[in-house]
Amino acid sequence: MNEWISSSPSNTWKIAAEFFQTLELPAVIALHGNLGAGKTCFTQGLAQAAGVKEPVCSPTYTLISEYQGAVPFHHIDLYRLGGPEEAYDLGLDEYLETDGITVIEWAERAAELIPPDAVHVRLQRGDDEQIRTIQIIENPL
Ligand SMILES: Nc1ncnc2c1ncn2[C@@H]1O[C@H](COP(=O)(O)OP(=O)(O)OP(=O)(O)O)[C@@H](O)[C@H]1O
Ligand SMILES: [Mg+2]
Q1: InterPro entries given for it (predicted)?
Q2: Residue 132, ligand 1, Cβ within 6 A
């Protein structure tokens, strides 16, 4: 399965958990989609599936959050990244080489750092307020 239709945030969590089961770890997941498309929601579902007990949120100033589940879980949100050189300063390349799972929102802001074997997922709003399409896509970077 490489395309799902989500009807609610909790459905997106469920889809993320299903997607998680298909991953071979270590894995880098690049999430694509506009503001409010559901990238963080999908990340929360992945984190829960990875055994993370703490709440995963969308921090305003932290670009990288680390959690420990059954495996290490990294949540990276590059929305506020100033430029590629800031990504190097943050040591982003090191996070992309670690074990476990690394999920990146707004990966296009550091396209040159995203490993070629990353799995790319696109989330898009549907016509209805709660509808989202979630697709595994070819590398768009
Ligand atoms: N089916 C759905 N799946 C996910 N989120 C949904 C769904 N239906 C409604 N929503 C709402 O859409 C919003 C998604 O927000 P979220 O923070 O996950 O988006 P995002 O893509 O991470 O945005 P940003 O680019 O700002 O980080 C939430 O308010 C959530 O309640
Ligand atoms: Mg987000």
Answers
A1: P-loop_NTPase, T6A_TsaE
A2: yes
Residue 140 lies in a domain: no
114 within domain boundaries: yes
Closest ligand 1 atom to the C-alpha of 131?
Answer: 1
Residue-wise pLDDT tens digits, 62-106: 789 999 999 999 999 999 898 878 888 888 888 888 889 999 999
CATH number at residue 78: 3.40.50.300
Is 1 part of any domain? no
pLDDT per position as a tens digit, 30-58: 999 999 999 999 999 999 999 999 999 98
For the Cβ of 41 lying below 6 angstroms from any atom of ligand 1, the answer is yes
**Is the minimum distance from the CB of 103 to ligand 1 under 6 angstroms?**
no
11/65 Cα distance (integer angstroms): 24
User: Using CA atoms, how far apart are residues 53 and 38, in angstroms rounded to an integer?
Assistant: 20
Ligand 1 pocket member 9 (CB < 6 A)? yes
CA distance 76 to 78: 6
Centroid of ligand 2 to alpha carbon of 22 (angstroms): 23
Domain limits for position 52: 24-131
Residue closest by Cα to atom 17 of ligand 1: 40
Instruction: For residue 31, list its beta bridge partners.
Output: 105, 121
